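Can't attach files on this board, so I'm pasting raw text. These are the components:
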Amino acid sequence: MNNIIQKSGLSAFVPWIVSAIVLSILPFIFTGGGSITIMNQIGITIVLAMSYNMLLGQGGMLSFGHAVYMGIGGFVAVHIMNIVENESLWLPLPLLPLVGGLVGLGFATIIGSFSTRKAGTVFAMISLGIGELIAACCIIITVFFGGEEGISGDRTMAPPTFGIEFITQKEVYFLIAFWVLISVFCMYLFTQTPVGKMANAVRDNPERAEFVGYSMRWVRFVSFCAAGFFAGIAGALFAINYEILTEQNLNLNMSFQVLLATYIGGVGFFLGPIFGAILFTLLQTVIGLQTDLWALYTGIVFILMVMFLPAGLTGLFAMHLIPLQLGRLGMLVRPYAKIFIPGLAFLIGSIALIELINHARHHGEEQFMTLFWIEFDTKSFLPWIVFTLMVVVGFYISRIIAREVTEAWGEATFVEGERR
Amino acid sequence: MAVEALKLDNVKKNFAGTEIIRGLNLSVAQNERHAVIGPNGAGKSTCYNLITGRYELSSGRVYLKGEDITNLQPYEVKRKGLSRSFQITNIFPKMSVFENVRCSLLWAMGYKYSFWHMVGRQSKLNDDAEKIIEELNLKDRRNTLAGVLSYAEQRALEIGITIAGGSEVILLDEPTAGMSVSETEYIVGLIRKVTEGKTLLVVEHDMGVVFDLADRISVLVYGEIIATGTPTEVKENQAVQEAYLGAAMEEH
Amino acid sequence: MDLFIINVIDGLIYGLLLFMLSSGLTLIFSMMGVLNLSHAAFYMLGAYLAYQISIITGFWVGLIVAPLLVTILGAAVERYGLRRVHQYGHVPELIFTFGLFFVIEELVQYIWGRSMVNYNSPESLDFIAFNLAGGSIPAYKVFMLLVSVGIFVALYYVLARTRVGMIIQAALSYPKTVEALGHNVPLVFMGVFGVGTGLAGLAGVIAGPSLTTFPGMAFLLGSIVFVCVVVGGLGSLSGAFIASLLIGWLQTFAASYNVGAGDILIALGYEYPKDIYYHPWRDLWTLTLPQIGPILPYILLVLVLVFRPNGLFGKRES
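---
Top answer:
Structure tokens for the assembled complex are below.
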């Protein structure tokens, strides 16, 4: 079936054309204040998370320092912006991501030449060490990294492209969208190449890959360089969008965020990181505005995901393909609907309690607080009792219904003569 | 006389001071089907690991069609035209059967570390992979993940990965271990079919399979070859009967 | 010369502190094959718990109770978290502990706030133990040294002389055999994880007053501890010990000798540039040893991993 689609040429481009159309009308649908800013951020995160998944998902390499390749690409991009501003170099802004990509590629080539010798813990530790090293260098090498305050540039000073000077966020959006589409397309093509296929093989069984003629080290190295290239593109896009880069854009915390976004989306799927990037950025920007505890929430969600949903959100969708194919998806609707209400009560109760405790500990002097659009008195007992009840009762009922869900799931996915 | 397809010259291997392989000499002629038998712990799998670069030799040399391949990396050995299977199934579990076979063809068909070819568009590559799957009798399992195949199917796939890419010398490590009689027949038939015109070295415990398949047999006991010859010669060899075959024949 | 001796002592204390963390990390890695990336978070937890307890009951109760609490927490993490993730493989385990690090860091800030807390050494130890011409060594440092040495000796005794130690040592090399002999390996895992994190907690309790207790303390020490275990060789206790002391001294000495790259360059015959601020090599000219001190461990780490991927004393493959 794959063959037919791939051979018939044109139809293979349909999803890409649709994506291009969707990307170009999005800014006209979401016109609200910060939405273009958020979409730009999402675009950058998509490229970064996808490039990270080339390592973790496709190649089985766990990196704790992927932000470094984005950061280096971004820093060089800002420097080039400044050189272009001084008119010692002619470079239209839309080509800058390519330069960032090449920088990421170059840096990945150097690091990869020794770090890809082994996968697993050793690779992870080298990536951690390199990440810490570069982050520490940011403070020391001020000529390049600009010390604590970082370096900044001005994207509008580049020679205009078809009359566009990239002054507004919307203009930048189209530049980013263009590069997101190109990058995702190229990363998809990469998975279809011999070395992309062998990356999966090396991830699955490095030893056997050697016995079919491939050096696992070289396969990893090629994937690593490619991932560095696309991370560099993300870095240059970041530089164009924010016009500033600091140590915070390449430190361990940033690398963790990349891992988090990718993992939440689902590392086993090509499209997983896209969902992860969208969700993560929304959590970060939207919830980040509502509460200063967003990092705690995302951290807890992440830990729970690793424990209970290792395939990520995409994995959750993919799981439901089985009952869908069997035509039994309807069997799940009722139990899902039943668990929704107590589950939601538990969730809201927990969040409210966490926020309430936070309020009591750190803003004790203010008597009133607003949660879920309701203002209440934190000094009275009522909210404490209500939220605790929601947590306890919600959890208890959810647990009972959870059994029903499991049963329904078993029935919906049961296939005669096959064990699951 | 033509050069031997595979030749081991006084190969030795020590593990932490203990000699496991003690001066192994073995030569396999081109297009010969050669079986290695011997009791458990005789060093059969170790011997394979030494030939294919999984372990480093303590001393001695290994020649493939006259070319010295001693202590080359596994992927270099494979590129020189020697391919092996494993006693414990060793496939790519999270990839489909088709992908398993196609990946095994890539190097032999010259794609190397290419990132400019689209594998889906290489018709010869895909046709060859389909052909192998057909030979393996796994056509209706083509898109199944290799990890969820039945044991016999995984063993068949293991052989498919090994022979894909047209290596001239094939090393099989207990291809029928743990199989029922009918499954064994299926695998033996498969081996016969896919190793047509190739050199085969096979380690096997099932004497029925060995005498059925092999042109010549070597008997490995405690890291040494104590006899080599045609099945009849080996059967009649006094030393072999004392050391090993007697007991094995009774069991059989 | 006096500065040298003081540095030797400071470096020794710092090194032994590192060893308290790296020994637990090494034990956990050797037993379970997982590098606990959240290890330093338990160290921070120890300091904060001890601070909380010391408010109510004073320092000495905290010294005992806080590490025990951390031990229980660590064991719970193994029992209810890690054991579950274990079935998915090593990479998810690493990811889990990495995520746990950030969650604990956020939790600590959630409970105790984002600024440092006032966790002090006990008054009974607020005197100067002895003077070394020019500098003085406070009694609390001597106390830290004694506790660290005590832990080192106790650990050595338990591992080398007791039955539990023999099981652990055997499980390091032959985990399957040990299980086959009827030992409850999951329980041993839980115990080792608990004790390992408990050691980290104890390190936090005694380091808190002297290195200050603040939300960044885990991050500051965490990566250095990984450097210790990796440089020493994953799974090698003696390697972790030597690497911890080495890095302890390396950092202490680097921080206190203000050697500038400029001086070296001048000594090599280069001329000091007039307008240093606009000079392309200004970072090189103004570079000093205390500045590069913090990154020395990472340089060491990368060099070791490149040239000896199994560490200085390691033999196990990861």
